[in-house]
Amino acid sequence: MQTVAVACIVSVALLYVLWSLMPARWRRALAAGLLASGWPLGAHLRRWLSRQNQSSAGCGCSGCDRAPGQKARASQPQVVQIVRPHKPR
Q1: For residues 64 and 71, is the Cβ–Cβ distance under 8 A?
Q2: Is 62 left (phi over 0), alpha (psi -120 to 50) or beta?
Q3: What is the reported pTM?
């Protein structure tokens, strides 16, 4: 029984690593293929795959398109504060 539990945990971890390190184009294609297949997927997995199937932002961070009202305006100056560490004497 313990071997089966360890095999399940290792399999899930392997799938997670492969999904995370896979290029975004491949992830979208795989998500679209799984959604188009006739496999019985749960509602939660189907929603997650449909979100993964959507195209992300150009930079790959998917942060710019999440909160459109929070974008920084280029016309407003932004203050950059540099703090130097204290050197002991």
Answers
A1: yes
A2: left
A3: 0.50
